[in-house]
Specification:
The complex is a heterodimer of chains A (about 325) and B (about 200).
Chain A lengths: L18 H13 L32 H7 L3 E2 L11 H4 L14 H5 L9 E6 L5 E4 H5 L5 E8 L4 E11 H7 L8 E6 L21 E5 H4 L5 E6 L2 E2 L9 E3 L12 E7 L6 H5 L23 E4 L9 E3 L7 H4 L13
Parallel strand pairs in A: 1-4, 2-11, 5-12
Antiparallel strand pairs in A: 2-3, 4-5, 5-8, 6-7, 6-11, 8-9, 8-10, 12-13
Chain B lengths: L1 H24 L10 H30 L5 H26 L4 H10 L1 H18 L3 H7 L1 H7 L1 H16 L5 H23 L1 H6 L4
Helix pairs in contact in B: 1-2, 1-3, 2-3, 2-8, 2-9, 3-5, 4-5, 5-8, 6-7, 8-9
The chains are: A alpha+beta (about 325), B mainly alpha (about 200).
């Protein structure tokens, strides 16, 4: 594994915010009516032009057309300046119950997933619908790297350099109609490839379903990822294409997507169906609203070592309040958890 | 021979954790993964409930097989259940709470699965204290009554597991089924001599 490391003590390019970016951010925040206090709750974002891409020597490769796109990978906006979690944890510590409920099960068993060929069905309230190959889905989009914080509902977190493109850009291509109020996502259902879907006494039903409100899906942070660390997506992380919504708990970021549907009515998502008292449709990261069985006020930033669990405070909307708080302005987030 | 052997075998899960911690601290590949404190916590907790169930299993097993020496290791197995439960609690307080006792009190009050888990642990304490031969003689019939609490502790422990389950109820179902079966045997064996019936040669 080869991860680029900077000289210890050196100021990372990612830590420097150019004056124009800084002023720009200021203006946006002021325009939103957020005071100086809220500056502290946002994640410090890295300047795009100064940032180096994360790379790794891991042997994850995609089909030729994807490899070609990966060669043109560029640093994207909205990346946090925090250091990314080392690759071995990003690809070795996963929740992907389709391959088992242990954290290392996906890395061990996801080899059975066939990700090429892959197609995604676009359905529902849109002018353009149908089944498309993954290559067609990606064709007009340039790939960018976004280093996002990732906060699991289980109160651990990582920082992941995702590779992908904006969900909003994809949605626009299919021209959703005015009836499209929500976007529903579905994971592959194939127990032969995903043996966890056959598990007895499972807490959830399959296929896994997720959803976003239309304005959430069109938010600039919503991202479709096809890789991590500059390489094609490892199966255990949701290959070949997955959602990443960094201001929501990790389970909202549905993996191995085969269907995207525009709907009039709010979809019932998997975890909400399993336990509506504990998991809601929105599932925004919120340190003030505890999970009924544990606190969400803090999180363990992985990897944690034995005698220092690396506990950090959880931020409202996982630190992305400047980008997404306006979506929930008039909502009671205790009720709409 | 039976006793020292049981002692050594019972230490294996703990030795495994120590070995993994050694690997972790020397930077070698290990099974503790990205969240070692939590892995140790879960491992010790699992073995606590397993030893509890194994302890409960001894009497029916002795009745079924007539192998009376089994009774000699029952106390030791019970004490190992307490040992694993203690290290489970210790791992929670040291690794996850970082010795923040205010948080521990809050957790015990607020989180029902921790409340029942902690209750199960506290109920084990009088059983440990009265596990000596002297206490056994002293308490006589009361000793038997007191130690029946272990079935209640088993139910609490299974509740603890079921209540904290997020991904799967398989463990809780398996452990629960075993406790129910053992409780059933405990209640009905003396009345109906189920084992004697079962063991009676077919005529």
């Amino acid at each position: 594994m080869l991860i680029k490391r900077l000289e210890p003590g050196a100021i990372k390019p990612s830590e420097i915010t150019s004056e124009s970016t800084f002023m720009n951010r200021r203006q946006i925040l002021t325009a939103m009516g957020l005071g100086a206090a809220s500056l502290a709750t946002g994640v410090s974002l890295a300047n795009v032009s100064d940032r180096q891409l994360y790379t790794s020597g891991a042997p994850f490769t995609g089909p030729d057309w994807l490899e070609e796109k990966l060669r043109l990978l560029k640093p994207g906006e909205f990346s946090t300046g925090e250091d990314a979690t080392p690759l071995e944890y990003v690809i070795g510590y996963n929740n992907f119950y389709e391959f088992g409920t242990g954290k290392t099960d996906p890395a061990e068993h996801a080899g059975s997933l066939i990700t090429d060929p892959w197609s995604v069905e676009i359905a529902g309230e849109a002018e353009v619908t149908g089944k498309f190959t993954l290559e067609d889905i990606l064709k007009p989009h340039d790939l960018e790297e976004r280093v996002y914080r990732f906060r699991c509902v289980e109160a651990w977190s990582m920082v992941v350099p995702w590779v992908g493109f904006s969900l909003a850009d994809l949605i626009k291509r299919f021209k959703p109609t005015s009836d499209a109020k929500y976007v529903r996502f579905e994971t592959l259902y194939d127990p032969d490839q995903m043996p966890g879907q056959r598990a007895r006494f499972a807490a959830i039903d399959y296929p896994y379903v997720e959803g976003l409100r239309m304005d959430e899906a069109m938010n600039e942070l919503a991202f479709l990822a096809v890789g991590v660390y500059g390489k094609a997506m490892p199966n255990q992380n949701g290959a070949p294409i997955r959602l990443v919504v960094p201001w929501k708990y990790g389970f909202k970021s549905i993996k191995s997507i085969v269907k995207i549907e525009f709907t009039k009515r709010r979809p019932r998502i998997t975890w909400e169906r399993s336990n509506p008292r504990e998991y809601g449709f929105y599932s925004n990261v919120n340190p003030e609203v505890d999970h009924p069985r544990w606190s969400q006020a803090s999180e363990r930033r992985l990897p944690s070592s034995l005698f220092s669990p690396n506990r950090i405070e959880t931020l409202m909307f996982n630190g992305y309040a400047p980008q997404v708080a306006h979506l929930y302005q008039d909502m009671d987030l205790r009720k709409n958890y | 021979m039976l006793k020292p052997l049981t002692f050594l075998v019972s230490l294996v899960p703990f030795a495994y954790v120590l070995w993994q911690v050694y690997l972790l601290q020397t930077g070698a590949p290990n099974s503790l993964s990205a969240d070692p404190g939590k892995e140790i916590l879960l491992h010790q907790g699992e073995w606590a409930i397993r030893f509890l169930l194994i302890t409960l299993l001894i009497t029916p097993l002795r009745q079924l097989t007539g192998w009376n020496s089994l009774q000699k290791i029952r106390r030791m197995l019970g004490l190992f259940a307490f040992f694993y439960a203690s290290t489970h609690l210790l791992a929670y307080v040291v690794f996850l709470l970082e010795l923040d006792f205010a948080n521990l009190t809050a957790d015990i009050q607020k989180r029902p699965y921790i409340t029942v888990g902690f209750a199960a642990y506290l109920l084990l304490v009088p059983l440990v204290i009265t596990s000596t031969n002297r206490m056994m003689r002293k308490l006589r019939k009361n000793w038997v009554l007191l130690h029946r609490a272990i079935y209640g502790i088993g139910i609490l422990a299974v509740t603890h597991v079921a209540w904290l389950a997020k991904s799967s109820y398989a463990d809780a179902v398996a452990y629960g089924a075993i406790v129910v079966l053992l409780l059933f045997l405990r209640v009905f064996e003396p009345k109906f001599g189920l084992f004697r019936q079962a063991l009676k040669p077919a005529s």
